[in-house]
Amino acid sequence: MNRVKTGVPGLDELIEGGFPEGSSILASGGPGVGKSILSLEYLYNGAKIYNEPGIYITLEEGPQNIWWNMQRFKWDLLSLEKDNLMKILKFEPSADFSENLESETKRIVEKAREMGAKRMVIDSVTALSFWLDSTAKIRYAIYVLIEELRKLNCTTILTSETTGRKNDLSRYGVEEFLVDGVIDLYFIPPHHFIYVRKMRGTNNSTTIHPVTINDNGLSVNYKEEILWEALKD
Ligand SMILES: Nc1ncnc2c1ncn2[C@@H]1O[C@H](COP(=O)(O)OP(=O)(O)O)[C@@H](O)[C@H]1O
Ligand SMILES: [Mg+2]
């Protein structure tokens, strides 16, 4: 199996070298746990280190805001923009999203196809789901998304906003069953943590590891472990 290296320090060590190529990975957790930073770093490394084009679809914040936030990190963003290796786009669902589920969902994937993206981020599928009026539709939209991205062989992080409790994996209780991998992020002030809950075809780490977020971005202290009991219920 081909592995797509995240390049996030310490993360690839937990998952046998990277995400399975073409897979969809859910990055799940409460507000402020580092979902967006992890996702941006995955695309940044893809472009900067591995020369793979990546696209970031935002459903909440504007692209300008995200570029501006990234200036905070000691990353070389100008070269990425210049070479068009990283795009940030805001997806505005149409008013009849719920009626045109399949075509609207494919419209997202079309953005990845247009730029030949090998990596994609959708931040967040929770926001996408706000436009849909039933769990069945949410499930179907995410299913279509994942299958289309798989056909493109595009390896994707979908973020999912939860309450942050340790057994709460997603907002609708459907996302985690559709994806190939689930990464849980936690924040217990002042510490951040990561747990790889599942990763298809991978003998992944089964313990919780501390995470550091600073001006270099996010990194995983993969040699350190903490107890499950240390997380709040
Ligand atoms: N430069 C930085 N130095 C230290 N911590 C940071 C820095 N930038 C962001 N953070 C931490 O990361 C958190 C935000 O991460 P973010 O990826 O936006 O969360 P999420 O998308 O899960 O809501 C902040 O709440 C803060 O704790
Ligand atoms: Mg976020």
Small ligands present: adenosine-5'-diphosphate, magnesium ion
How many whole angstroms does the radius of gyration measure? Answer: 17 Å
At the fold tier of CATH, the topology name is: Rossmann fold
Number of strands: 11
State the separation between the terminal residues, measured CA to CA. 36 Å
Largest sheet: 9 strands, mixed
Strand order of the largest sheet: 5-4-6-7-3-8-9-10-11
Q: Which parts are unreliable, with pLDDT below 50 for 5 consecutive residues or more?
A: none
Overall domain count: 1
Alpha-beta content class? alpha/beta
State the fourth-level CATH superfamily: P-loop containing nucleotide triphosphate hydrolases
Mean pLDDT: 93
Oligomer: single chain
Q: What is the CATH class?
A: Alpha Beta
Percentage of β-strand residues: 25-35%
Which architecture name does CATH use? 3-Layer(aba) Sandwich
Order of helices and strands: EEEHEHHEHEHHEHEEEE
Overview of this structure, please?
With 233 residues, the chain is an alpha/beta fold. The chain has a single domain (3-230), classed as 3-Layer(aba) Sandwich (Rossmann fold), CATH 3.40.50. Helices cover 30% and strands 25% of the residues. The chain is built from seven helices and eleven strands. The protein has helices at 35-48, 63-70, 77-82, 101-115, 125-129, 135-152, 175-178, and strands at residues 3-4, 19-20, 24-29, 54-58, 86-90, 119-123, 155-161, 181-188, 191-199, 209-214, 217-220. The strands form two sheets. The protein has a nine-stranded mixed β-sheet, with helices on both faces. Strands 1-2 form a two-stranded antiparallel ribbon. The radius of gyration is 17 Å and the shape is globular. The N and C termini lie far apart (36 Å). 44% of the residues are buried. The mean pLDDT is 93. The structure holds adenosine-5'-diphosphate and magnesium ion. Residues 35-36, 123 line the site of magnesium ion.
